[in-house]
């Protein structure tokens, strides 16, 4: 009976720690820059969540989403310039 109790307590502790993993950073957290670039709606949700609190800017997911936004803006700017050149 004692072994069962100890086993259940250890299992409960491990499950509790699993909920504290970095994967759950934000509503769409745990992804790399490339993923956010391919999932624009989720990138916007994550960005909004990150901007709600200054402390969140230190989280890996917030750094990744910020970098993805920067790359997306740069890509869109290049496409616009190319389009204007083609129209001239």
UniProtKB/TrEMBL annotation:
Alphabetized UniProt keyword annotations: Lipoprotein, Signal
Endpoints of the signal sequence: 1-23
UniProt KW Signal keyword: yes
Protein name, entry field: EexN family lipoprotein
Species of the source: Igneacidithiobacillus copahuensis
